[in-house]
Recover the amino acids of this structure.
């Protein structure tokens, strides 16, 4: 596992820069990455963030982690585009439209 501490600032929404001190991006053996934040006042404690830096609520999760709290991910998000779950959901959606149009049996 490789980890590195992110720089003190990170670009958000174009030219704005936000201070994310204590943020660590770690590369796992599987190739995935995870974001962890060192809790302010207790450098030994690290909190794993459930979202990546490109998520719209990342800053809220970061601030909560620095304070020692964990936020849950809000809202129901569908599967990521290009995954098997996305393909199954797309297929079921199109099948429902076909049944609604009377071109397929509801038993399909």
């Amino acid at each position: 596992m490789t980890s590195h501490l992110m720089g003190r600032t990170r670009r958000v929404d174009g030219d704005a820069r936000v201070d994310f001190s204590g943020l660590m991006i770690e590369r796992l053996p599987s190739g995935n990455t995870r974001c962890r934040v060192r809790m302010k006042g207790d450098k030994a404690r690290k909190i794993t963030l459930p979202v990546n830096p490109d998520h719209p609520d990342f800053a809220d999760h970061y601030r909560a982690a620095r304070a020692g709290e964990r936020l849950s991910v809000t809202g129901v998000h569908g599967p990521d585009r290009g995954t098997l779950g996305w393909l199954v959901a797309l297929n079921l959606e199109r099948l429902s439209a076909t049944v609604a149009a009377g071109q397929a049996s509801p038993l399909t």
Q: What stands out?
A: Residues 100 and 106 are 8 Å apart (CA to CA). The first helix runs from residue 58 to 66. The helical segments are 58-66, 84-100.
